[in-house]
Amino acid sequence: MADAYIVGAVRTATGRKNGRLSRIHPVDLGAIVVDELVDRTGIPTDAVDDVIFGVVMQIGAQASNLGRNVSMSSKLDLAVPGTTVDRQCGSSLQAIQFGAQAVMSGTQDVIISGGVEAMSKVEIGSNVRDGLANGRGIPKGERLELQYPGIQFSQFDGAELLAEKYGITREELDAFGLLSHQRATAATRNGYFKREIVAVNIELEDGSKDMHLLDEGIRPNATLEGMQGLNSLREGGVITAGTASQISDGAAAIMIANESAVAKYKLPVRAKIHSLAVVGSDPVIMLEGPIPATQKVLEKAGLTIDDIDLYEVNEAFGSVPLAWAKALKADPEKLNVNGGAQALGHPLGGTGAKLMTTLVHELERRGGRYGLIAICEGGGTANAMIIERMNAVTA
Q1: What pLDDT sits at residue 132?
Q2: Does residue 181 have an active-site annotation?
C-alpha cells in the first residue's frame, strides 16, 4: 500500500456571520483555496485526479455538487472532476480521509480535499426547514423513530449531556472559552497563522476594497467576568454562547499525493498521513464520538496519547474537547494550542480541513512529530486522523 503525503495546506481566515466574507459565494471561496494550492505547489493544472469537498448544508448556493463547481471555478483543467461529501461537521476531514484512501490504494495519485461553508448565505438547518416548508418530510424515518421514539437529536442537548457525564462545570467551560480567545489572540499577534491563510479580496458595505487576512471572530478583550455573565443556552445548563462554536464563513483545502507524484512533480512533502479512523457512537449524546475515534486511531498507529505532540479537537462546544481530554488523560497544554472554534469559528463543512491546515503548520513551527485531529459530528459519528510531520517546511 502506498503512503499518502500532505504536500499543501491552506485556508481562508474565517469570517463572522454576516461579516467580511458574507458577500462571497461558497464556490468562489473553495476555488480560492484550490488555486492557492496550485500556485504554492506548482503542480500542473491537469495533474489532479479529483477534488473532494465537504459541505453540510447542500442547498441553494451550496447545492448541485459543490465539489465539481469548485473544480470548474478554479485554475484546474476542466477534465479534473469533483465530488461533495457530507459527514456533518467532519465533512472535510472525511474528504481528506477519502483522498488519502484513494492515494493509498494506488488508484489515484493526487487529490485535493477540502471544504467550505458560507453560513451567512446558507444558514444551519436550512435544508431541513426547506423540506418542512415544502412538504418533503423530515430526515427521521419510521425505522429510526421506532429505535429512538420521540427523540429529536440535538447537538445542544448532546453538549449538555456530555458535560454532565464527564463532570464538566460551568466554571471549567468559561475558563476554557476564555483560553480559546487568548490563545487565538496570541497566535494572531505572533503571526503563527500567516503562512496558512490565503488572502481573500473583499468588497465592504461602503463599496471599498480590502483584503481579508485575519480571523474575524477572535475577541482579544474577552474576560472571565464577561464569560461568566452570559446566560446558558438551556435552562439549568452550563453551555453559553461563549462556550459554543461561532457561526462562520470559510474554506480550506489540502493536497494529498503519493510518492510517485511527489517525485514526478517535485512536490514538498509536509506530512505523512499516518492512520485514520471513523466511528459511530450514541446519537443522543452525539458529541462523544471523538473519544472512541481517538482510541481507534491510536491503536491502529501503535501509539499512545502521550506520543502525540499536538491535538486539534474541534470546539463545537467547550464540553467536547474537555470531555475528550478527561477521558483520554490528554495533556491540556497540547490541546488546541492556537485556540479553537469558540474563538476562530466553525464553518461546518470546512472545519476539518481548516484544523488540519493549522495542525500541519503548527507542527512545522514547533518541530513536532505527531499531530492528532478529531471532530464530533451530527448523528453520533466522529473522524480522527494522525499525521506525522516530515522534513519540508514551505510557505
Answers
A1: 86
A2: no
